[in-house]
Amino acid sequence: MRDKFEEYIISQTGMPAASVEHISSLACAKTLKRNELLVRAGEVCRNKIFVVSGLLRNYGVAANGSEHVLQFAPELSWTLDVESYDNGTPAISNIGAVEPSEVLLWAKADFDSMLQEYPLLKHFSQQVISRNIYYNRRRVMTALSASPEEKYEEFVRSFPKLLGRLPLHMIASYLGISLKTLTRLRHAQLLR
Amino acid sequence: MRDKFEEYIISQTGMPAASVEHISSLACAKTLKRNELLVRAGEVCRNKIFVVSGLLRNYGVAANGSEHVLQFAPELSWTLDVESYDNGTPAISNIGAVEPSEVLLWAKADFDSMLQEYPLLKHFSQQVISRNIYYNRRRVMTALSASPEEKYEEFVRSFPKLLGRLPLHMIASYLGISLKTLTRLRHAQLLR
DNA sequence: CAAAAACGTGGTCATTTGACCAATGTTTAC
DNA sequence: GTAAACATTGGTCAAATGACCACGTTTTTG
Prior knowledge:
Two copies of one chain form a homodimer. Chain A has 192 residues and is of the alpha+beta class.
């Protein structure tokens, strides 16, 4: 499990194996069952989360109980509730497993000191953060301007590998449309 | 004009006046007429933009010509097209003046070297970036989960001072609803 | 392997929303 | 100061959407 992470970091940063093993050694490994929660909204998100295998979702629950997905995090990706992690405030999102998953967790203090120690890691980390900023910006644009069909097509284009792994109601709640609308437009596309 | 910026930076960072004057001296000042464009989608956004007075909007134009506002930037705030600024790629948004405005512009190279030179500026800059990340995250949540009325109420709560300064169609295009829906719900609220 | 839960699809219906058009009042620009 | 452009509100209508319900199938789970 840790070796997959180490391989990933080496390929992404070119860091020496010894440093990567050090980073890896500070992580806490955890196995999640399907639907198990890792972070609960309202609590503080105290860890950086790296998904080694499986699939997590980062989602908020509205007052009326409806769920809204902020992010899907498949294997070899990162997730957390940034605002909570940075400031120790209550998280606005839940983070849970869609599939049985393996994750690595770092406490903020540990991760911060690693960022100090390894400039290559810091550089990479900032890349990840930047990508996330761009992604959210584009997502706001899409949410504002696209029709349900365009949103779905963009999702398929962006995450083709996730299509078969997610129940449709989660895709709908990621796109901000109802399940009904989603099945309708899928049906319409079949007829073309 | 520059003094307003210097005052702002000193109050936000506690930097010494001499450093702030240096920063200020590297900026290019510009006056914008109402509706004048500062950054055009498709071109590269080459500057950090600080709004000294007036009001800018950062917005995308969809294929069908409809406009969608990503951000309003009133006096004493920052704006740019991040992805374009960072990577030199074409901007996805236009940035233009809603009111006659005064802005300060820094070239990326200059701003980067200032970040190196002044740790307090770097720290503050990262705060601004963080706030922006949190803001976009919340915005995605709202866009996904809130009703038009809730979106409007959240806007009023978040930016009470902007209400009277913006035409309603811009607020609608910020909220991702039609002008018609916006006037409808405002009318409904009047009756309560 | 069997029972239970979750999933995808479909139907109906009421409601919301947007597109289009018009009228009036206000602001801008020359 | 005046003409032109813009803003706000309103009406009507068609279309899109979501809520609710049901059914058959697949997937989990014990």
